[in-house]
Amino acid sequence: MRPHLVERHDLAADAFLLAGLIFLIGILIQTFAVFGFDGEATLSMWTELIGMAAIVVAVIGAPLAVWVLHGHHLKIRDALGALLGLVVGGVAGIAVFFLVFQLWRFVPAVFDRDQYGPLDLGILMALAAAGFLVWPVKRAIVDLRGERRQVRVDGVRIGALAALVAVVLVSVFLGQAEVGLWLVPIGAGAAMAIIGAELIEGRLARKSVATV
C-alpha cells in the first residue's frame, strides 16, 4: 500500500476508535444521569441533550483531535474538509446503515432476538469493523515493538480498541448488542470527516508543488 494511503487508513482508523470511545463515555454519563445511583429512571431534556452532545463531540471532536495527534496543523481548510467529509460520509453512512438494518429484519434470526437483541447483526458489524482496523492495529503493535516512532498514536489506538472491545463484550453479555451497532455508524462518520480533511490537504499540497 502506498505511504499516503497507509497514513489515510491510520487517520481514519484512529478517528473511528476515538469517536467510539467518546460516544461510549457520553452514553455512560447519560446512563448515570437517567438512573442515578438509586436505580430509578428520571428522563429529562438534559439527559436527551447529553446523548446528542456525545454524538456531536464524537463525530467532530474525535477527527480534530486525531488530526492534531498525528502532527497536522489545524487550519480552517482542514475543518472545512472535515465538515464536508462528515456531511457526505454521514449521509451515505446513515443511508447504508438504515438499509442494512431494514433488510436484516427479513433475514432468519441466528439468535433469539427477543432475548439477545440484534446480536447477529452486531456480529456482522463487528467483523466489518475488525477488517477495517486490523492493519492499523498491527502497524501500531509493530511500531511499539520496534522503532517506536509514534508512541502516543500507538497508545491511543490500542487503548481505545481495548476499551471498545471490553464494552461491546459486556453489552452483549447483558443483552444490549445495539450498543455495538451505534458505534459503527458514529465511528464511520468520524473516519469520513478526517478523510475529507486529509484529501483537501493533499490536494492543496499537490497544487503548491505544481506551481513551484
Automatic annotation (TrEMBL):
Entry keywords, A to Z: Membrane, Transmembrane, Transmembrane helix
Positions of transmembrane segments: 12-37, 49-69, 81-104, 116-135, 156-174, 180-200
Protein name, as recorded: Uncharacterized protein
Source organism of this protein record: Tessaracoccus flavus
